[in-house]
Amino acid sequence: MAIGREPILKANRQQPPYASILALSASGFSIEKSVQFADGQKLALILDGELVSNDVEISRIIAQSTSSADRLLGSSIADSAIIDNAINFVADAVTKKDYSALHSPEFSIKTSENSVNAADFAVFSVAHDNAELKAKFSDVIDRVIKDPVLAPAHNFVGLYKVAGAPSLKTVAMTKEKKIDEGKFVDLPGAEKEKVVVRFPPEASGYLHIGHAKAVLINQYYQQKFEGQLIMRFDDTNPAKENAHFEHVIKEDLLRLGITPDKWTYSSDYFEMLRTMCEELLKEGKAYVDNTKTETMRKEREERQDSRNRSNTPDENLQLWEEMKNGTEQGLKCCVRIKIDMKSNNGAMRDPTIYRCKPEEHVRTGLKYKVYPTYDFACPIVDSVEGVTHALRTTEYHDRDNQYFFICDALGIRKPYIWEYSRLNMTNTVMSKRKLTWFVDEGHVEGWDDPRLPTVRGVMRRGMTVEGLKQFIFAQGGSRSVVMMDWDKIWAFNKKAIDPIAPRLTALDTTSPLVSIELTDSINDNVSTVSLHPKNAEVGTKVIHKGKHLLLEQVDAAALKEGETVTFVNWGNIKIGNIKKNGALITKITASLQLDNTDYKKTKKVAWLGDVKEEAGKSIPIVTAEYGHIISKAIIGKDEDWKQFINFDSVHYKKMIGESAIKTLKKGDIIQIQRKGFYIVDQPYCLKSELSSVQTPLLLIAIPDGHTGKDNEKVQKNTTSTVTAASPTDNEGMEVYQKIEKQGILVRDLKAKNAKSQATKDAINAMLELKRSYKEVTGQDYKPGKPPAESAANTILQDTNITKQIEFQGNVVRNLKAKDPKSQETKDAIAKLLDFKKKFKEATGSDYKPVAAPAPPVQTPASVQDSASVDETAFLRVIEDQGALVRDAKSKDPKSQKSADAINKLLSLKVDFKKVFGKDVPAPAND
Q: Percentage helix, strand, coil, to 5, in the chain?
């Protein structure tokens, strides 16, 4: 939910909505115009027919509706999660009129940014007149009062008189750019050179990026405090241990740049662990239980004591001997520690600490028949190895008390447990069991398949260690459980590879290439050019030129006779005669215009020289583009994940590339101009004298965080791909919105003092925005005339998808505040991600919570004449939605999916009538 116009709040002067007023001030809205006081008036904001009456919720809506959204709601993933969670806490407290939750350790407003944000506004609104909360959040109170940008808000309310605020331009200029790094909290009790952390993987599979997050966070604190990092293999389960996986994990850690101070194994302490178990049995703190597994599970659920809980120490030790010898009787037993069978926490209901497994261990062989559980070994080995801080994901939270209980029962030192959120990714599986199934069933090429979330898989697909680190560090140490989209991680990776990836040329041979013949008298020749336009250190390459050139069909189709075109890395060439055979272009004649160095308004094309010299011959290339291995973003707890396997998740394409490509080695990352980034999976190999087989270069496409590909744009007949890179519709609209808001600010300042410095600064900022608008859109700014949108964007705005995203976002926030791990929350998140995916598919850019200004009212006739709306395209959208309705109804006509599809179809038909002034025509065969 967001607003693109001046919001109107109705409120009681005796109870001013402080959070909302602060948000108005920070967002550049006029407080005087937005807030209407009346005696006895209950707080109300009417937005799209909905009543919002919670001050904190209104402040969030205002913050979402401004170009300052990143500053107020968090510019990094970690900060956004912290701020959003804090707002949910306070909003809920306001609704319940119970502020005890704000004293909870779970409530935090600490972010990596120093500037005030929407969470500060929320806390200030409830704490400034509450003595207890004011003392607790004194730093927030002080920060909000002293921030000069918020001076208009304080002066309007009248409780605090503060100095005036600087102009928005001044604020923007003084705001420092920061590394996109999340908040890493200081570890309690941590001291320089005394911190010891550990990473305890089980050698039962390959590391995935969730493990990478764990080890990188441990490394972060090791380096920050100049401490030690222990790499410990948890080999407590002989059935799962595998020497091959151990070797692989060590290699993967080297790939990630991890150098531990010590390598250890849980099995190093088997003798000590067995002795400690015996001590617990002798002291009556543990017992041997031979209850059947199903009965034991039922007793735990019903919180009933086992009949063996009252065994004497001698009886327990006798059964313990049976276990150690691996006898038939011993195989029926396990050792359980006595904690509390009545506990609400299932992990405290006498957990198993030892089991009988007469299997060969990869390190100790057949020496032992009994093995400790991970939950028993972990706290003991942590304590013995000197671990000061055990970093674990929040999924282990329920076991924390169990961890400490075991330490207390044995009288050993308790390390500090610090929690962070587990890494959850959409459209994939992270469990080793499921990943193993994919490999064993042959659905993937192996553990390093680019579709898998394994470290080897993502690195084979082009993920760099630097990109992975930036992604992990952007999340920081947040405990908020979030589902991350793959676009996020690949966007970080692009930032890492873009400055260093060599630029090379290759042409898609899916359609016949077009031959260009120069009319000039020219021989085959070579020239040396830079491999990167902005980084000379990347090196140079030799390009081969001549009388005959090659061009892709899609580029040739956009050329016109007589126009001048820039051939990248050569110069301007004038197009002469264009010959066609049906729809295909077969040949083009052209002439050099190298003296013309005006490249600003020319089309840019990638080309190859069709030369005779062997050194300049193009080489064959095969590219592989991998998709998601799971078709659904988030799979519900009760859903069968195998029903969502994407069996069509890799596609191959043939190209030819310039001769410089033949020197590439396996693992090299390049950018093929105007196509994207690729990593070499298999180098090019010349024909062998023995086999006469030529091996083409195999490239794997590296995602860059954007869904719009050049070939997709061609297939959809959108703007020609040969034009110089142009901004998206959204970029022009964003600048337009900033100008509109800046105009309001200028008018307000002029009304107060037309000659003040603040007014001059605001006018200068306005002029700068108008210059930016012209650069982005190629046209002058005109009030009330936003930049023309594509048909897809117009239809998208005419439908309710933006409102659906905003509404669903509020649903998700409310559910996460109640129970972030519930199935209802996961389903709501999946629905939100689906809406955003549709938005991105339609617009080519990510959804941003900024509403567009209301379009001018048009009559149906004038709309039909507008190039911005295409009736045929709109009808195709309605037709597609009709197909979705029929499909959903055929499966379950009473399902929520069917109802949602029908509602959307009806909404589209209503919008069609509003735009075109007529009903949707019936199908011809009706």
A: 45, 15, 40
| Cβ atoms 10, 36 nearer than 8 A | yes
- Residues paired with residue 624 on neighbouring β-strands, in sequence order: 652, 700
Q: 853, 787 in Cβ contact below 8 A?
A: no
Q: How far is it, in rounded angstroms, from Cα 632 to Cα 834?
A: 9
Query: Is 890 a member of any domain?
Result: no
Greatest Cα pair distance in the chain: 104
> Is residue 833 scored above 90 in pLDDT?
no
pLDDT, residue 130, reads 86
| 138 contacts 110 by C-beta, under 8 angstroms | no
The pLDDT mean for the chain works out to: 83
Distance of CA 38 to the CA centre of its chain: 45
Tell me, what's the pLDDT at 70?
A: 73
pLDDT at 606 over 50: yes
Q: Are strands 389-393 and 370-372 parallel, antiparallel or unpaired?
A: unpaired
* Number of structural domains in the chain: 6
Q: Locate tokens 């970690």: which residue? A: 78
Phi-psi region of 169 (alpha: psi -120 to 50; beta: other; left: phi over 0): alpha
**Coil/strand/helix, residue 841:** helix
Q: Taking CA 830 as the corner, what is the angle to CA 829 and CA 836, rounded to the nearest 5 degrees? A: 90
pLDDT at 730: 56
| Average pLDDT value for residue range 908-912 | 77
What one-letter code names the amino acid at 162?
Answer: V
Domain shared by 637 and 607, yes or no: no
* Residue 617 burial (CB count, 10 A): 16
* HSE toward the beta carbon, residue 908, CA cutoff 13 A: 23
**410, 348, 354, 347: which is closest to 384 by C-alpha?**
410
Contact present, 58 and 72 (Cβ < 8 Å): no
Q: Is the pLDDT of residue 797 over 70?
A: no
Indicate whether 667 and 610 sit together in one domain: no
Does 158 share its domain with 201? no
Strand partners, 543: 527
What is the distance between the alpha carbons of residues 496 and 701, in angstroms, rounded to a whole number? Answer: 16
Is residue 546 in some structural domain?
Answer: yes
DSSP assignment of 307-364 equals TTTT--HHHHHHHHHHHHHT-TTGGG-EEEE-S-TT-SSGGGS--EEEEE----BTTT
Residues 6 or more apart from 716 whose CB is under 8 A from it?
Answer: none
Is residue 915 one of the residues assigned to a domain?
A: no
Alpha helices in 39-76 (DSSP H): 55-64, 69-73
Domain residue limits at 604: 511-614
CA–CA distance, 354 with 377 (Å, rounded to integer): 9
DSSP string, 469-534: HHHHHHHTT-----EE-HHHHHHHHHHHHTTTPPEE-EEE-SSPPEEEEE-S----EEEEEESSSS
Q: What does the pLDDT average to over 335-348?
A: 96
Place of tokens 């969502």: 644
Q: What region, left, alpha or beta, does residue 717 occupy, with left being phi > 0 and alpha being psi -120 to 50 degrees?
A: left
Length of the chain counted residue by residue? 926
| Segment 119-128, tens digit of pLDDT | 999 999 988 8
pLDDT reported for residue 182: 52
Could you tell me the strand order of the sheet in which 286-289 lies? 286-289, 334-337, 352-356, 370-372
Q: pLDDT digit string (tens) for 680-708?
A: 999 998 875 556 678 899 999 999 987 54
> How far is residue 804 from each of residues 650, 657, 811, 849, 900, measured CA to CA in Å?
32, 45, 10, 12, 11
Tell me the pLDDT tens digit for each residue of 736-749: 777 877 777 777 77
Is residue 773 over pLDDT 50?
yes
Question: Three-state SS for 628?
Answer: coil
Selection from 198, 302, 576, 626 nearest residue 444 by Cα: 626
CATH number at 21 reads: 1.20.1050.130
Phi-psi region of 269 (alpha: psi -120 to 50; beta: other; left: phi over 0): alpha
